[in-house]
Specification:
The chain has 81 residues and is of the alpha/beta class. The chain is 31% helix and 25% strand.
């Protein structure tokens, strides 16, 4: 359960379809950053929900993506395969 994520910045690692980050956005999160190597399903879901303006997608593996990120997040979710 996500609980109260109002105005959170969320990082969804190994995002897959983006279910957790997208759920956070639906519950009031300010922004979600998604990291995954395969983002086709994620892109379709973001388009379907019309939240592109509140998302960042990083198409890379987690280790390289984390080395580049310099943002702060209120919630980090990691669900490796």
């Amino acid at each position: 359960m996500l609980g109260d994520v109002e105005d959170f910045a969320v990082l969804d690692l190994c995002a897959g379809t983006g279910a957790v980050g997208l759920e956070a956005l639906s519950r009031g999160a300010r922004h979600a950053t998604f990291v995954d190597r395969n983002v086709e399903a994620l892109l379709n879901n973001i388009d379907a929900l019309d939240v592109k303006d509140r998302t960042t997608i990083i198409r890379d593996d987690v280790e390289r993506a984390l080395a580049r990120l310099d943002e702060r997040f209120d919630l980090i979710f990691a669900d490796p395969p």
